[in-house]
Design a protein that fits this description.
Two copies of one chain form a homodimer. Chain A contains 16 helices and 14 strands. Chain A is an alpha/beta fold and about 425 residues long. Chain A has three domains: about 180 residues, 3-Layer(aba) Sandwich (Rossmann fold); about 140 residues, Nitrogenase molybdenum iron protein domain (Rossmann fold), CATH 3.40.50; about 35 residues, no CATH class. In chain A, the strands form three sheets. In chain A, strands 1-11-10-9-12-13 form a six-stranded parallel sheet, with helices on both faces. Chain A is globular. Chains A and B meet through helix 5, strand 3, helix 10, strand 13 and helix 14 of A and helix 5, strand 3, helix 10, strand 13 and helix 14 of B.
Chain lengths: ~425, ~425
């Protein structure tokens, strides 16, 4: 059974602290193994990729076979039902439209002292997208990772997707075609991250790597960080629902289970002002669980990490939510929009009774790659800014340089950097 | 002697490749030692900080003495010459003004399908700023790291600055007071990063850590990433100057040396269309080097990592610069502004003959924390975005949910996530 907490109980803070700091991921220590794999890929390129793919994915490749042929991709697209192609296209269009509004503007201006200042945003040249094999091989994630890169203007998007035993997820290929991915390789694990970071004979290196993966992929991303950019290290997914009497218990139960079906380590939390709703949702979860094909995942997730928290008022609810900094925050309240300013830390907000998180997972337009494990305290969901970077611009005239020079020289001298001061004074014949 | 390359020489690509991939940092393998230090700080808090500070900084502290008293900070401020206080204030004012323009706007809108979409930006709650001790303890860096955090609206800024043997940099404290740093601790190294990430009895944890440091600090930041956010891992500094006949060789030599005096691993490169300028700058560097107090650093930097590259035209110059993705790019050209669009990858651009990089290091207003080691290919200099994060917003009405539902359900089914589909259909009585 999930935990039932009440903010007005004496031991609430202790229990909430335990919930807040519960470690849901078993940390597998793979960093030495990963360092070894990365070293081999860097030294031996394609040969190492082929060896590791034979060993870990039970698949014999050739250098020419590392990449999918365009014919294979086209065929996968043709083999995908029309209805699904249309859904993917609709989703991609909405995601693209939302992300286009995130493009910042360059600027160049002169300030009061006659100094030219500005900023210029350019896209990253080449990006690698990792798509896990197996259970979590989601076509929707291909769209979510690729759309902001495309909107940013990234020229080359290379995708890595393992195909254990040669098993290919056709819909993932179809989604990649729709999103305009330039290259797709049937390589996974730490070796795929190594290929993207260092390049091989057949695969050109990229500048940034995004996308979720298992412990090997996460450790590899951490190790190549600096050589290339990376996105966040994704952990198990979570949802927090704030609800009051106006909410429908069956709908909320469905949302909690949608989160729980991802993984036994997923977390679903209800925070409510209504003891009756709390009871009703718990009963509904049990009822709906029985009907669920993924009961074997959702059941343990709900029992081990689920929680129902009763609060005195909505201010308490938002306080709890901000302390959790949930990846997904549903506001199952009337007039939910008025509460947006109470949210300080969350990956995404879903407003009102008719916005289940699943709409955002697929087709709402917002990105479903969001900060997990309380990292919304300092991180954002994937967006166009992850694929662009900012160049600052500074320009002085002889007179504005003269105006700024004395203070620049004073600071350079205080830091004992005489050549810094000299590079200013030499221009003024001082 | 620095390298002299010409793009029109047959072996240029080989030589340039070597220059591009030259490893300027000796990588010290400290990750096991750092993991041990972090573990002790996490387990034993203040006691561990005091032990490590005694061991590494030869300084005996008490729990009460970890933080500087307000009196000590005020006294440091009073002991700083007025001229320097004024310079720090002037710099802080200009840096703040420039960074204020970086604050993004929240938005909330309804699209054609009646879906509410938006984004909300909030500041990170608490930030830790690391300031190295010894040679690289720069008051200007205190301003540069703190200003964007303050502009972002960060409520709590905690600073860590080691004081080996009890030696305190008074100007660093004065700069911290001017920038409104809330807490200052005399702790350094990996133990300081551990204290910021995990907290101790005396030091509350933060959500994000920024600032440069030695190999221990860099490794510690890498290891706590995920628990907290971090900024980039800074490497040795570099400048690339693009110049033509219009440039003054003595000025450019001064700029190259200002870079070289930081560190023997710093890198200064001139790319020019003018063979005469190349000769004159090289002669000027030798002449000015002799006069420089930091000749022992600037000399080896210039000899080992410096380079002068002759090109046929400016397009070649910008191509080379984009391949290097330099931290600092000076355009010593007439009408430099017209070339901004040729720059794809750089940390900062300095326009024209009267903008030595040192102006940007101190007082121009732009940030001097910039991406090193070619990371400008995927990273930006420090800015307000490093201290805020984005929450996405999605809201459906009954009718817009109905419009999006079929495609969302189709995608959920394709991903075998039945509870996702159900959380949508249950709201439509499907």
């Amino acid at each position: 059974m999930p935990q039932r907490l009440r903010t007005f109980d004496a031991d609430f803070e202790n229990k909430f602290d335990l919930l807040l700091n519960a470690k849901r991921e078993s940390s597998v220590e793979v960093s030495d193994a990963v360092a070894d794999i990365l070293h081999h890929v860097q030294q031996r390129g394609d040969d190492a990729l082929i060896e590791f793919t034979a060993k870990f994915d039970d698949l014999q490749l050739t250098p020419e076979g590392l990449a999918f042929d365009q014919d294979e991709i086209d065929q996968a697209y043709l083999d995908t039902p029309d209805e699904l192609i249309d859904a993917l296209k609709h989703a991609y269009k909405r995601i693209t439209a939302y992300h286009q509004r995130q493009l910042p503007k360059d600027e160049l201006f002169e300030d009061e002292q006659g100094v030219t200042l500005g900023s210029k945003w350019n896209a990253v040249d080449a990006v690698g997208i990792y798509v896990p094999g197996g259970l979590a091989s989601y076509p929707s994630s291909v769209l979510m990772n690729t759309a902001p890169a495309r909107v940013a203007g990234v020229e080359r998007v290379a995708m890595m997707v393992p195909t254990p035993g040669g098993k290919v997820n056709q819909t993932v290929l179809a989604a990649a075609k729709i999103a305009g991915v330039d290259e797709i390789y049937r390589v996974g694990g730490a070796q795929a991250i190594g290929a993207l970071a260092f390049g091989t004979e057949s695969i050109a290196p990229v500048n940034k790597i995004v996308g979720p993966g298992n412990a090997f992929v996460a450790a590899a991303k951490r190790q190549v960080y600096g050589k290339v950019g990376i996105d966040m290290i994704a952990g198990p997914s979570e949802v927090l629902v704030i609800a009051d009497d106006s909410a429908n218990p069956a709908w909320i139960a469905a949302d909690l289970l949608a989160q729980a079906e991802h993984d036994t380590a997923a977390q679903s939390i209800l925070v409510t002002t209504s003891p009756k709703l709390a009871d009703d949702v718990m009963a509904e979860v049990e009822r709906q669980l029985d009907l669920l094909p993924k009961k074997h995942l959702a059941g343990p997730s709900w029992a081990d990490y689920g929680a129902v928290i009763e609060v005195n008022d909505l201010d308490e609810a938002f306080n709890i939510s901000n302390r959790m900094a949930p990846e997904h925050l549903e506001l199952s309240l009337d007039n939910a929009q008025q509460y947006i300013d109470k949210v300080r830390h969350a990956g995404a907000i879903f407003l009102g009774h008719h916005t289940p998180e699943a709409i955002g997972d697929y087709i709402g337009g917002t990105n479903h790659v969001l900060p997990t494990a309380r990292s919304a305290r300092y991180a954002s969901g994937l967006n166009v800014h992850d694929f662009i970077k900012r160049i600052s611009i500074l320009g002085c005239t002889p007179s504005s340089l003269s105006a700024l020079a004395p203070d620049a020289i004073a600071l350079a001298e205080a830091e004992d950097l005489q050549a810094h001061g000299r590079s200013v004074s030499i221009r003024l014949n001082l």
